[in-house]
Amino acid sequence: MGSNKIEYGFLKEIGLGSENLGGYINGKWKASGPVISTVNPSNNQTIAKVTEVSLEDYEEGLSACSEAAKIWKSVPAPKRGEIVRQIGDALRAKLDDLGSIVSLEMGKILPEGIGEVQEIIDMCDYAVGLSRQLNGSIIPSERPNHMMLEVWNPLGIVGVITAFNFPCAVLGWNACIALVCGNCVVWKGAPTTPLVTIAVTKLIAEVLEKNNLPGAIFTSLCGGAEIGQAIAKDSRIHLVSFTGSSKVGMSVQKTVSERFGKCLLELSGNNAIIVMDDADIGLAVRSILFAAVGTAGQRCTTCRRLFLHESIYQTVLDQLTGVYKQVKVGDPLEKGTLVGPLHSRVSKEKFAKGISLIKSQGGKILVGGSTIESDGNFVQPTIVEISPSAPVVKEELFGPVLYVMKFQTLEEAIELNNSVPQGLSSSIFTEKPGNIFTWIGPNGSDCGIVNVNIPTNGAEIGGAFGGEKATGGGREAGSDSWKQYMRRSTCTINYGSELPLAQGINFG
Amino acid sequence: MGSNKIEYGFLKEIGLGSENLGGYINGKWKASGPVISTVNPSNNQTIAKVTEVSLEDYEEGLSACSEAAKIWKSVPAPKRGEIVRQIGDALRAKLDDLGSIVSLEMGKILPEGIGEVQEIIDMCDYAVGLSRQLNGSIIPSERPNHMMLEVWNPLGIVGVITAFNFPCAVLGWNACIALVCGNCVVWKGAPTTPLVTIAVTKLIAEVLEKNNLPGAIFTSLCGGAEIGQAIAKDSRIHLVSFTGSSKVGMSVQKTVSERFGKCLLELSGNNAIIVMDDADIGLAVRSILFAAVGTAGQRCTTCRRLFLHESIYQTVLDQLTGVYKQVKVGDPLEKGTLVGPLHSRVSKEKFAKGISLIKSQGGKILVGGSTIESDGNFVQPTIVEISPSAPVVKEELFGPVLYVMKFQTLEEAIELNNSVPQGLSSSIFTEKPGNIFTWIGPNGSDCGIVNVNIPTNGAEIGGAFGGEKATGGGREAGSDSWKQYMRRSTCTINYGSELPLAQGINFG
Amino acid sequence: MGSNKIEYGFLKEIGLGSENLGGYINGKWKASGPVISTVNPSNNQTIAKVTEVSLEDYEEGLSACSEAAKIWKSVPAPKRGEIVRQIGDALRAKLDDLGSIVSLEMGKILPEGIGEVQEIIDMCDYAVGLSRQLNGSIIPSERPNHMMLEVWNPLGIVGVITAFNFPCAVLGWNACIALVCGNCVVWKGAPTTPLVTIAVTKLIAEVLEKNNLPGAIFTSLCGGAEIGQAIAKDSRIHLVSFTGSSKVGMSVQKTVSERFGKCLLELSGNNAIIVMDDADIGLAVRSILFAAVGTAGQRCTTCRRLFLHESIYQTVLDQLTGVYKQVKVGDPLEKGTLVGPLHSRVSKEKFAKGISLIKSQGGKILVGGSTIESDGNFVQPTIVEISPSAPVVKEELFGPVLYVMKFQTLEEAIELNNSVPQGLSSSIFTEKPGNIFTWIGPNGSDCGIVNVNIPTNGAEIGGAFGGEKATGGGREAGSDSWKQYMRRSTCTINYGSELPLAQGINFG
Amino acid sequence: MGSNKIEYGFLKEIGLGSENLGGYINGKWKASGPVISTVNPSNNQTIAKVTEVSLEDYEEGLSACSEAAKIWKSVPAPKRGEIVRQIGDALRAKLDDLGSIVSLEMGKILPEGIGEVQEIIDMCDYAVGLSRQLNGSIIPSERPNHMMLEVWNPLGIVGVITAFNFPCAVLGWNACIALVCGNCVVWKGAPTTPLVTIAVTKLIAEVLEKNNLPGAIFTSLCGGAEIGQAIAKDSRIHLVSFTGSSKVGMSVQKTVSERFGKCLLELSGNNAIIVMDDADIGLAVRSILFAAVGTAGQRCTTCRRLFLHESIYQTVLDQLTGVYKQVKVGDPLEKGTLVGPLHSRVSKEKFAKGISLIKSQGGKILVGGSTIESDGNFVQPTIVEISPSAPVVKEELFGPVLYVMKFQTLEEAIELNNSVPQGLSSSIFTEKPGNIFTWIGPNGSDCGIVNVNIPTNGAEIGGAFGGEKATGGGREAGSDSWKQYMRRSTCTINYGSELPLAQGINFG
């Protein structure tokens, strides 16, 4: 396909070649592990080769990172913010190129690829301000001549393991905050998106070098499960931020907990949209489309379950099947494409198996339902009419498959929304204040993201991102997410010469 | 011993008899499990008998509690605060009696017993104010006609598993907050302090009943490991707050994580005091005494390791051995006693074994070192001179044993402080601002509690209580600990008719 | 009237007699100013006599208060909270009696009198929790070895000047917060409600005395404008919290500003309710009634302006006139009364003059419009149809007079709402999310209180109470109102030996 | 002098010529008022000519600004942040040139000129992050089916009147925050630093234009007292932020208060440094030098009073006079100069008069004390030994004059520190924790800035800047200063169909 020619242009712009070293270790690019090929999911042809890191490389990287941590944590937070500001500017200067490589290697459409890079830039801007606001507290002490402080200090090293579907934004959520908080970062990107990992790391590395800081402050590792497991086990890594499936996440948590480390988990979602009888149907249909087929259904916030009030069930379904039929599936770098390929051959196979399973459980395919014959991993955006009690509905099938179900009352719809193991995102479409506030209140959605009249996906960085239950409970990006990247101390300073005790206890 | 006669007086005052039912289930006192005896650790004689709950009782309790949770979470938070205020008043009215039963059954001296009850009362007062301050946030949205909210809703049910050493204060830390946050509480007290559990529960139950609220809002269960395990496994319990050893804590966490529940862990401590060459020695010695022998060394915040600057090593040691020799060990209810018995025969045996191990690792007993011949579980407050590299120093021996070690520089002392698996509490005695701020800063103590010129123990409720590393990472009582008892939702409400996307993405 | 007999009962219960001293000065009851009579507004008969304070008394009081301030500010905040808790309990024990005296002396109906006392009690409970949460901040410094703190310290003395319409609740808003913040309080109640002032002060005084604290921590002064002026001028009083008319408030502010003191102003309101075409009419009518005739229209949050969408104009008006006709005007202590007398003969006269002025400006009286012949200060609840351009509509007539006007669009209604000098409270009745969020957003109401589907009056203590523009800008009760009662210091501590400068400046 | 040739270089770089229009009005450069000359204080020669605005220009500007306010307040805050980010980048690109023009026109040395511009840049970076954190609150309601919100909305227009001594940093403190908060800004710079005003405005204007936003969002006015008075009176300007003397500030406040507008005042300082007997003398001397002679003593935070413990009085004085003698006074643009000229001929005259007054009140000149013969406004850095009771010590003499006094105890030193009308900044030099915490506590300094072991001047932007008493009480830059630029609404939304009342009142 013609797109290859275009590709090489922007690859070079950001320092990528046909062969690339996949480790930024102790401030140097090196890697002594296996050589892998990274492929374009639109045609499964090799884009470039990448040498992954070995466990020896890992050990060298962590060793240097531990040393760098001593330096970095003593740099005043606003000065760390200035470094993150420069990282943001470096990314901004390469926004389009980076967006293109995300699109090429991951398979999402270009506006989404650029949007993803914009999200790291936004995170950098946000983190700069935050670097002067990592505030502790002075809490009134009940004892005279005592001062009680809640102080926040850096953890040390934060490991960030990201997934293919957001090959760089999730790094941004974590690393921007972790860095201003005074932590070194060890990043393992997805094994199938090494070019994005390398390209982003190069820009960060340049900033560190320009400021005469140890490169080991940011350690980047292309590699597979072996490296992920090393991170999970490594007690030098105080926090492991993991994005991926609930299954792998639970295993990571187990390993990290056994060494009393901290975890921040962003796991599977199984997100629902509820459309009430009083909803703005046009708004709902546009939102469902974006939520269900955006990123080819491979967002953790993708809408997978659609609950329609019986009174507008058929209307919404008719409109939705109408717009589904106009969706252009194709090369994600081409203008006009709305849905690119699934990320990998395996994804395509899982889609096919998933459709079989759906049918076997009584699911009725309304639109789509097939893979698309081609060298790439394309599949049809799919709508399925199914019973909420079908077991498949409780699981996350990572592709553009939407289950449609009917309900009669808000209470019933909320109960359905909450009836799956996952608890990431959820939306309602309604025009009634009573419905809105019930939905976001104690008897409403049990998810971490609870939207009204917008899709389940497309979060802003100012809020905390993450979900409950099998989604893992972590929160990233805005709000007070930064607290997870720091160690809290309750400090009481006696500056008098007496020794009064708390609760008025008299001892001796 | 004469104390028995006094005992029965205050037991009756708070509704306890010679035989007691150990379950408050669905608003009724019932229990169908084994009958156990609770003993006075000063003489190992039975105080009273208690029937523990069975798993059937547990199931009935949880079933009722789940129903009550639907009601309680919809009560406005300030109204929940009013209930907690009444609980505080009920406890205040029985302060001395409750303090006595704590002292009798746990073995701590009476001022500490009363102090512990005062701590729940303080928590109630604090939680009342908090009930109008469980504030969410309104966060600026980047999209026109959108409002972004961070809303906090109740979790549902909070399980609280407490330990013998603080048989009621830890319940207070958790339950007062959990209740105002809108959660029902399921409490399992320590198997060896059931009378405290029952007495406290009775007062809470009366308040619920007086306000025509379901008793199942507070479910109380006397029982052993089987009940604890049931709580850990039960997916109806959204948060399990566990206080106990690191070993059991890790097992609880594993069980709870496997069902993607939440844990709040308060585990082992191994707390150090550092005395610098410029310290106020008198203040330090008084503090070390309270920290090392208070509660007979059975606080999680007990000082177990003492680091003395070489220049004041002998001076401090001389003064300390001097005061140790004057410490009165005896009946905790008697005036003048500073150190009561260990809580159980097993504790006394562990103490004896611990001393042997200490000696075998080169520890030199400076004071104490023996159990005391008597029907009770008394042991001698003990000071040991030992090398920081001895393995015993890394472990928590739950009794009044203090390891003394020498250092030369602040950096060395901090490194020693941080060199154990546990990370709960720590103190420095110094008069230099440079030392103080280094100690509480990024290169200082890695503990959750970082004190200056006060002991390691005796925390105020306004701060967050808890520790890092093998101490489990939970935070209880003040600061923003309440957030752990609630579910956070990031809500975005679109009140316009357009559908702008975050990061300026243009889809379709 | 028969009520007099009942009166004397509850007066004695709270320590009031037929003659009373109006000053609590340096912990003693004394007063050497003029003797005044306080009257029952239902019949204008004397309830009791009160000796007001003289300027000499004032000086003695302030002098003692200044000394007490040195002690009180050094008491740890949570200990100050414990005193406020006891004050709350003392009030709670006399809730009904205090409510009755409020009702008797001020003229509001008994449920409102009791509600007002409950509000101080709520404030006490709230302030107790707050006493452990008057948190400062630790802010990251850009300089190594520097710590930046934002510390909150007591101001010293807070003067509180309250008005007749809330003779004790407003004291509670201010004093509970001021006290836990470490300030002494100097209270001047309204000249026409001295019994409430004395009764409340007696309970506070007893608590201080019981705790062996100087009575001068709370200094209470019955008196007139001369005493108010002394407070405004007195540079020993760091903050003057004034509740009253915009006119007097501006004069107080001028006086206080001239000595660079601080003011907290709660001045006139001119509050509107907007009823949209999609509103729940029943809910709106009930709310308008409470907002317009509650406390006989003498709340600062009383609804004085009613904007009805043209499509529901007549419907609402019909229902409203219907319920107005059923309103029982009479003795506020009698069960069933909804509207008591105006507070004073002067108020009644102003009402009569106001009605004349309204008529002269084209106002059409739909209901009421007359004073009621009796010994008391009763007037008829009144509805007036008038043009929004009539000058009277811009002013606050302190009685139960409601101006009704018509509008066509939300924008128009908001513009009308915002078109008066005052900016206290405002409400909209609507069922559309777009209307709600527009109303509370940047293009909505410009008031300090912006309600939806509830009346303009009846605020909860958890929020900040107060208004913009001619209402004076102060905020009392909840949220971060406490900050106004404290002095903020930005503290930077250099604990190193170098002298780095901010903004990287190199000097010398 | 040779510097003129250099000057014109950087002037052109930032768009300045020999004749300049002094108004940016409705997005256009225009001015129809008097033409003034701006002079170099080093030689009193004209740098360039500037046409000031007339009252007609003012009116046109405000009219356009009012229209622009409607647009700007509806732009989402993070988008406003993006504009401020671009302003920061525009300033960063011209950092050295702007620093030079500040130095040339104001007279401060170049490192201080550049530092001042860096401060606006820092403010921009900070404000970008803040634009996603202008958080309101969701406060628990005591009523079922009610939601209580504290919402922050833009004020509308903020007037900023700045002084010559910080001709652009103070604009930055105000405008960066005001803009992200959604307000338009009307800026009147000092009449004697119009080139700085114009240069900074040009960069801001370009950013607005590039983003197709109305230029009237930022309205800039060169002019004198007449324009300042117009701003104070103008009820379209919701907040007037004024920096200047206490005397003028009080007058501004009076004018603004009369229309119930808001004021933010940064007025006179009279700042002290206390040196305790245990201080690091070397650190203290270096700090005093910077604090007393930096910016030629023309900072509001300049140290004017020095309290030395009697035991180190002579030592400090000897060292201080030693370093004073080495201070190079001269052209502020020349490398090596520490002290430039006073800003104006009038300042030089006031200095001379001030020295006479000092002498007449018993002051003994230890160093300096004279003006320097030259075309410029140079004076000698001066140290005066004087009694704390001399009236001159209570006043702010705006030049490099330092009063030295002796004390015996910390309590005495604090009392002296607090004994002046002003309350801006203060420092202590000590190595004792007891001194430090007393100093920052309730019995310590009564200033807004309370430093330890650093000078009185040189604040970081992360903290709140401002002072108490005659300093005016305003707070700018960091912490929650942004709240002053917004309007707070307490919103209660009833989304149920019932009408429960607060405090449990039952009405009707």
UniProtKB/TrEMBL annotation, chains A, B, C, D:
Family matches, as Pfam families: Aldedh
Entry EC no(s): 1.2.1.3
Residue ranges occupied by any Aldehyde dehydrogenase domain in the UniProt entry: 34-489
NAD among keywords: yes
Catalytic residues, chain numbering: 266
Enzyme class label: oxidoreductase
Key words of the record: NAD, Oxidoreductase
Superkingdom, natural source: Eukaryota
PROSITE patterns from the UniProt entry: ALDEHYDE_DEHYDR_GLU (PS00687)
An annotated Gene Ontology molecular function: aldehyde dehydrogenase (NAD+) activity
Family: Belongs to the aldehyde dehydrogenase family.
Cited PANTHER family: ALPHA-AMINOADIPIC SEMIALDEHYDE DEHYDROGENASE (PTHR43521)
Subunit comment: Homotetramer.
Protein name stated in the entry: aldehyde dehydrogenase (NAD(+))
Gene this chain is encoded by: LOC107423905
